[in-house]
Amino acid sequence: MVIFGASGDLTYRKLIPALYALYNQKLLPDKFHVLGVSRTTIPDGEFREKMTEGIRKFSENIHLNDLQIEEFKSHLSYFQMDMTLEEEYSRLKSALDETNPNEGADSNYLFYLSTPPSLFSVIAGNLSKVGFSNESDGFKRLIIEKPFGYDLESSLTLNSQLHDAFLENQIYRIDHYLGKETVQNLLVMRFSNGIFEPLWNRNYVDHVEITSAESIGVEGRGGYYDGSGAIRDMLQNHLLQVVGLTAMEPPSSMDADAIRNETMKVLQSLKPIKHEDVASQVIRGQYVSSHIRGELVPGYREEKGVNPESRTETFIAMKFFIDNWRWGGVPFYIRTGKRLPTRVTEVVVHFKPTPQKLFQVDEACKSCNQLIIRIQPDEGVLLKFGLKQPGAGFNVKTVNMDFHYSELSDTHLPSAYERLLYDVMVGDSTLYARADAVEAAWKFVSPILEVWKNDPDQKIYGYPAGTWGPENADDLINDGETGWRYPCKNLADDGNYCEL
Ligand code: BG6
Question: Where are the domains of the chain?
Fold first, then answer.
């Protein structure tokens, strides 16, 4: 496995700990080698030490074994090169040829591009020129991280450049949300139970709400984030993939393409949001400085690397429809943002009320029947329904049936990268984004970006860091009966602890 951009954070925090976790579970082949590649000169020893530190710091749910870490470390080495220069790739090839006999590994290669996106097509093209896309002596797979383009046009260009060098079935586009156990569980919950699927449509579902809140700010990534914003960073990829799995039709089999065909149909059925509807259906916000638990946090425009006059959104809430037979007329709501009161990602399916109200219903029960799929943290599933309040009369109280993955204490929940890296090794692309799906998602998102760019009347609202975004986002979903589900209170004003 060759990791381009190996001196970066992703390799240290995610990739190497995930590879170690696979090694620990004996899920790596006996013969393997990981070559870190980057521009900086780093001696092998130093690279190994740094990676060991990453394993110790960032490994989750795994028992660290000193001896085993030492063994694992011996499979790592480092190679300095300028990734933009064609001639450097023959040097890389020789280095890899030398590594192979040492490790006795086959000619199966994974190339992981953990680099700025501007290098994706350059690296892919140069790898192909030195024969690294030719699979006659073993598989050659290219893994890329988002962003897959900046808008529809650039994503089409990127895909065509990648396809000049590698075949689509050799390209694995990582969306780490698809690697999350609970995101995959959406498939299993929906299609292994007879009780949910009959209700999973416009006849019984009132609306669907998807929230992905983060309490952190831009964490030193201001330079990148300012050119991206919440819509490109989270919604176009992670959240639309979650929409795909929530709304898809049953696949004909568990085959990668059968599943991806169905999620893609959902993306193709997203009803375009017209220019005149953007202001009312898409609310964007940007956090401003505020106190969180007594501590002053900077506003987005004061973050390092961010333009002090930036109009990049750190929050987005959107109402949209899926124009197909299953979902016609059912509103879907998505919101995501930085510096919100807590970190939580959940899908909430709100079912329609009974046709007639026979009983006195308590205050909290505005939308009594909700199925909440908690993607993170505290992964699990919560079903809310009404039961009789004990005592005289027939008062209804909403109760919870709550399942937490943590209760399966003997189960190892693999990290997203662990699962995804394993899948690419065995050639299973189910949990990777296909070119056409990425393009379909851009097709939906790009017109909104265009409106924001070209129409100076489009507003961006400020919200105090530590709150649930601009109040205008509430109007999206306030039909008088329901609102967004607030998993916990605001932090900014009253310093309340945010309880899920
Ligand atoms: C990344 C985004 O893709 O996902 C980050 O670039 C974001 O801005 C992160 O913080 C969220 O991932 P997770 O797994 O913490 O929900």
Answer: 2-175, 180-411+431-475
- Active-site pick, 238, 275, 350, 404: 238
Residues ≥6 apart with Cβ < 8 Å to 160: none
DSSP secondary structure, 387-420, as one string: EEPSSSS-EEEEEEEEEEGGGSTT-----HHHHH
> Could you tell me the CATH superfamily of domain 180-411+431-475?
Dihydrodipicolinate Reductase; domain 2 (3.30.360.10)
| Cα–ligand 1 centroid distance for 229 (angstroms) | 12
Q: What is the pTM of this model?
A: 0.91
Residues in the chain, overall count: 500
User: 233 CB under 6 A from ligand 1?
Assistant: yes
Residue nearest to atom 9 of ligand 1 (CA): 234
From 10, 58, 238, give the residue whose CB has the most ligand 1 atoms within 8 Å, as the site to mutate. Answer: 238
pLDDT in tens, the chain (500 residues): 999 999 998 999 999 999 999 999 999 988 899 999 999 999 999 999 999 999 999 998 788 899 999 999 999 999 999 999 999 999 999 999 887 655 656 789 999 999 999 999 999 999 999 999 999 989 999 999 988 999 999 999 999 999 999 999 999 999 999 988 889 899 999 999 999 999 999 999 999 999 999 999 998 889 899 999 999 999 999 999 999 999 999 999 988 999 999 999 999 999 999 999 999 999 999 999 999 888 899 999 999 999 999 999 999 999 999 999 999 999 999 999 999 988 999 999 999 988 888 887 655 555 679 999 999 888 889 999 888 889 988 888 888 899 988 887 677 778 889 999 999 999 999 999 999 999 999 999 999 999 999 999 999 999 999 999 999 998 898 765 678 887 764 444 444 445 44
Is it true that 2-175 and 180-411+431-475 share their CATH fold? no
Neighbour tally for 308: CB within 10 Å: 8
Fold of 2-175: Rossmann fold (3.40.50)
Q: Is the CB of 214 under 6 A from ligand 1?
A: yes
The DSSP secondary-structure symbol of 13 reads I
Measure 238 CA to ligand 1 centroid, in angstroms. 9
Taking only Cα atoms into account, the Rg of the chain, rounded to an integer number of angstroms, comes to 24
Examine the residue annotation and report whether 238 is marked as an active-site residue of this protein: yes
Paired tokens of 130: 């030195």
Q: Which H or E run contains 121?
A: helix 120-129
Kindly give the distance from the C-alpha atom of residue 500 to the centroid of ligand 1, in angstroms, as a whole number: 20
